[in-house]
Amino acid sequence: MRDPEVITLNGATFKRLISAKEIEDKVGVLAKQIRSDMGNAEIPVFLCVLKGAFVFAADLVRNYEGLCELQFLRMSSYSGANTTGKVTLYPGLDGEKLKGRRVVVVEDIVDTGLSMNYLLKDLRQYNPRTLELAAMFTKPSRLCHDVKVDYSCFDIPDAFIVGYGLDYDGLYRNLPAIYVKE
Ligand code: IMP
Questions:
Q1: Contact criterion met (CB below 8 Å) for 30 and 60
Q2: Structural contact between residues 136 and 109, judged by C-beta atoms closer than 8 angstroms
Q3: Domains assigned to the chain
Q4: Active-site residue, selected from the candidate residues 111, 122, 155, 167
Q5: pTM listed for this prediction
Q6: Residues 54-100 pLDDT 10s
Q7: Annotation marks residue 111 as catalytic
Q8: pLDDT by residue (tens digit) across 103-131?
C-alpha cells in the first residue's frame, strides 16, 4: 500500500489522517467546481505558493479540464513546527501577467491565516480582475486573521500535518497521504 495507516520514519511514528484516495477524490471535485465557476470564456491563472502547494497545484491543474496558466511564488512564515509571526515574500512572480486576470492562489494550508491575509492584500497591487483562494487544508480552530477561503478540500483539527507537499523541517513532502506525528 502506498499510504499505510502507520509509518515510522527516522525513529518517529506517523499516523495517517487522510488517505491518498480521499485526497485524489476531493481534488478532482474541487477542480470541477472551479472549472464550472470559471465557465468557458475564462483562462484562470493558478498561482502556486511554494514550496508546500506544489503537489496540490500539480494535481489541481491536471484535473482542470480547460485552459489555464500556472505561476509560482515563494513565501515563508514557518520555522520547524512554529510560526515566526512574520511573512517574507520571495521573488519568482511575474506580476504583470496577473493584470486583469482571474487569479486563483493555490495554497497548501491556511493555519492562522497570517500568510494568506498578507499575500491576498499584497497581490492587489498587480490589479487582477478577481482574486480567489484555493487551500488544500484549513484549520478553522486556529484561524485568527481575516481570510476568505473560496475553495478548500479538507478542514482539519489543530494538529501539525505532513505529506502531500507539507513538510516538517524540509522532510516528508513526498508522502502521498496526510500524516500526523504521534
Ligand atoms: P499561516 O500563515 O499561519 O496560515 O501558516 C500557513 C503556512 O504555515 C502554510 O503555508 C505552511 O507552510 C505552514 N503550516 C501551517 N500548518 C502546517 C502544518 O500542519 N504542517 C505543515 N506546514 C504547516
A1: yes
A2: yes
A3: 6-79+87-181 (3.40.50.2020)
A4: 111
A5: 0.92
A6: 999 999 999 999 999 999 998 755 555 566 665 555 567 888 899 99
A7: yes
A8: 999 999 999 999 999 999 989 989 999 99
